[in-house]
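Sharing a chain and its predicted structure for anyone who wants a worked example. Both blocks are below, sequence first, tokens second.
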Amino acid sequence: MSVSTAEIEYINLLKTVIENGTKQSDRTGTGTYSIFGERLKFDLRNNTIPLLTTKRVYWKGVVEELLFFLKGITDNKYLQDKDVHIWDGNTSREYLDKLGLNDRAVGDLGPCYGFQWRHFNAKYTNSGADYSNKGVDQLANAINLIKTDPTSRRIFVSAWNPEQLNEMCLPPCHVSFQFYVNVEKKELSCQMYQRSVDCFLGLPFNIASYGLLTHLVAKICGLEAGDLIICMGNTHIYQNHIEQCKIQISRLNEIREFPKLKIKQVRENIEDYEYADFELIGYKPLSAIKADMAV
């Protein structure tokens, strides 16, 4: 599948949700049109990174959030210090109090995403605590399996921890991912499952993030990146994003090739990467399309 075809399929997904989606209420009170059980596939070979071109995707935010997860950090100040504000709404005082997390400090995500990747089910106290060697380091285990037992069917990471969902500021939307090694081609592929898919704002971000994650894990394991497959549960467009989606759909004939990713320095540990280690080559998207995030 060419990279252009992959973006066409994303645009077709937007069309399908608008034309066939069921109108439903949602947690945010915004309202959505939704369908269920979709799939997208992206070719990561030749250093391709799947950044959509029919609108500009916030690359710095993609990179910094992924590094935030890889380090197992749960304090939004890490992102704010880098001028990335994608988690501000879900960690504000008003929002945390609405969840009953009145004792939680502003900016504390709780035990979600990176915490479960690196410290699964460790007892959570706050974002400032030291969780070294606590819980299960699922990501390290996955990388070790890729290196030592590449045909294993257990190279799997889950962010969905029912025991700690009520402690999280937001239950994870992208809940799990599995790696697969083609030992003949020495390629690493990734399949991610996303239970809740905000097609306009969230999905383009998630596609790029898991593309980058696959490249990083492949590089550390001495492999090349293969495919990224995203399986989607509740696949929706918020009612206040419909017009923005129509603008993006109208750009179908202006799709461009995905850019290439240059990793300028290969780190020994995946959590040691920094934003400056990456360079995008040939990203020439159409203009950004602004929309409000439903909180």
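Comments welcome. The mean pLDDT is 96.
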